[in-house]
């Protein structure tokens, strides 16, 4: 029998459905309640929030939605929260999804995993489980989560899943509170546990548009330094640039340029169907209508919405390196078309640090001819494992290092001062 690698199968299937607007990928937030109180979280509510619990979809609601999304062509499904296991009936919901033939990924903080839960997952194996840790030491992790003992609870959950050979990966959010422990976390996960590890530094505002989580967001230089210090990560950014920079796209007046509403959808805990997890506007209520109707009407209308003005993002070929999208613009600026300045600064600084040529895109202040370019790149030397490197990777001599060190220290202190301001 001829066998096909999963990656080849997945790529081929995505190519086939891309042009047909099939909702092959979906994400369902089963709850926004969580036993942790993470400083950076964009949607967590107290685990015992009875009002939130009463407003959540019922088990029967979930079964109906699963019936409808699989009938529409969904194959890959992510369950996320909040904390998915904060719902006492989550295993019932999950098992029904598995019976429908879905390839299910679970996002969890691991603290509520018990032997019973691990055994059930071993019987009904998920496609993948991703657990978030927040520090290489318990003190850091628990400081971020706001719950003493949560680090040990998380690792206990990891151990239960590893004992059963389940497909597991660990990840973290890079924050001002844990940035110095990212390398140690990576070593611990990859070398001691033998698991995959990744991190993300791009925080979002809360779903109500309040900006509390941004207080622990790394400054652009801190984010780019993490990129440069990880050779594999830097190489991936370069590969992405090779695939996307300079690519001439056909004229497109739509504000969305991703798969949201084309091959991806999201459902929040209260039955609102949206193009993605971050989108909080123009939702369709699945409690009063069907998925097929919402997909064909509301999500199509949102996805096809045309821009009302020309911004610097329209002609920008760095979109894949930036992350700017309508939901990000809405959450941070109250306007889906308004460029998020933070994302723009990170993208340009990252390209500069990697020695990439940035294609011109109108009146962008962070391009070489822009008014803010010099200020953006000032003091951008970043530290690496074998010394200091300048923004294009050149090694500095020992004398040059002494001259440049104050600038580097200034950048590091800026991140450290932000951490102190948040936690004191």
List the helices and strands and how they pair.
Elements: H1 6-18, E1 25-29, E2 33-34, E3 45-46, H2 50-55, H3 59-72, E4 76-80, H4 90-99, E5 103-108, H5 115-123, E6 128-132, H6 138-145, H7 150-163, E7 168-173, H8 182-193, E8 196-200, H9 220-229, H10 231-244, E9 264-267, E10 272-274, E11 284-285, H11 291-296, H12 298-303, H13 319-322, H14 326-333, H15 341-353, H16 373-377, E12 382-384, E13 387-389, H17 398-423
Parallel strand pairs: 1-4, 1-9, 2-3, 4-5, 5-6, 6-7, 7-8
Antiparallel strand pairs: 9-10, 10-11, 12-13
Helix pairs in contact: 3-4, 9-15
List keywords for this structure.
424 residues; alpha/beta; TIM Barrel; nine-stranded mixed beta sheet; two-stranded parallel ribbon
Overview of this protein structure:
Helix 8 (182-193) links the parallel strand 7 and strand 8 (196-200). The model is unreliable at 383-424 (pLDDT under 50). The chain folds into 2 domains: 17-218 and 256-303, Aldolase class I (TIM Barrel, Alpha-Beta Barrel), CATH 3.20.20.70; 319-423, no CATH class. The strands form 3 sheets. The chain has a 9-stranded mixed sheet. Helix content is 42%, strand content 12%. The chain is α/β, with parallel strands linked by helices and 424 residues long. It starts with 5 loop residues before the first helix and ends with a helix. Helix 3 (59-72) runs parallel beside helix 4 (90-99) and helix 9 (220-229) packs parallel to helix 15 (341-353).
Short note summarizing the structure:
By secondary structure, the chain is an alpha/beta fold. It is built from 17 helices and 13 strands. The radius of gyration is 22 Å and the shape is globular.
């Amino acid at each position: 029998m001829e066998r096909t690698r999963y990656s080849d199968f997945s790529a081929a299937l995505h190519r086939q459905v891309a042009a047909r607007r099939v909702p092959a990928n979906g994400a369902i937030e089963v709850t926004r309640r969580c036993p942790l109180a993470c400083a950076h979280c964009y949607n967590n509510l107290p685990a015992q929030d009875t009002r939130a619990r009463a407003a959540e979809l019922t088990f029967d609601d979930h079964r109906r939605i699963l019936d409808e999304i699989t009938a529409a062509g969904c194959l890959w499904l992510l369950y996320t929260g909040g904390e998915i296991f904060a719902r006492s009936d989550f295993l019932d919901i999950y098992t029904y999804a598995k019976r429908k033939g879905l390839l299910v990924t679970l996002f969890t903080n691991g603290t509520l995993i018990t032997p019973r839960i691990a055994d059930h997952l071993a019987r009904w194996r998920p496609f993948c489980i991703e657990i978030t840790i927040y520090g290489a030491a318990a003190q850091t992790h628990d400081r971020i989560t706001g719950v003493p003992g949560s680090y040990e609870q998380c690792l206990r959950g990891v151990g239960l899943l590893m004992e059963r050979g389940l497909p597991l990966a660990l990840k973290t959010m890079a924050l001002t509170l844990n940035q110095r422990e990212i390398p140690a976390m990576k070593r611990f996960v990859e070398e001691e546990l033998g698991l995959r590890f990744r991190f993300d530094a791009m925080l979002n505002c809360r779903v109500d548009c309040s900006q509390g989580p941004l207080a622990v967001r790394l400054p652009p230089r801190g984010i780019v330094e993490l990129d440069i210090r990880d050779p594999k990560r830097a190489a991936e950014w370069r590969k992405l640039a090779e695939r996307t920079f300079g690519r001439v796209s056909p004229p497109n007046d739509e504000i969305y340029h991703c798969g949201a509403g084309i091959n991806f959808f999201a459902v929040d805990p209260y039955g609102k169907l949206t193009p993605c997890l971050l989108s909080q506007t123009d939702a369709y209520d699945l409690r009063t209508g069907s998925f097929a109707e919402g997909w064909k009407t509301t999500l199509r209308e949102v996805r096809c919405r045309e821009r009302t003005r020309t911004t610097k993002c329209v002609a920008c070929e760095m979109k894949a390196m930036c992350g700017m999208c309508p939901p990000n613009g809405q959450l941070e600026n109250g306007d889906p078309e308004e460029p998020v300045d933070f994302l723009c600064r990170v993208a340009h600084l990252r390209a500069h640090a990697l020695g990439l040529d940035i294609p011109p895109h109108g009146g962008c202040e962070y391009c070489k001819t822009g008014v803010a370019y010099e200020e953006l790149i000032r003091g951008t030397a970043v530290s690496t494992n074998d010394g200091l490197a300048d923004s294009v990777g050149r090694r500095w001599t020992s004398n040059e290092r002494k001259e440049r060190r104050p600038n580097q220290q200034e950048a590091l202190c800026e991140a450290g001062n932000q951490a102190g301001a948040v936690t004191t």
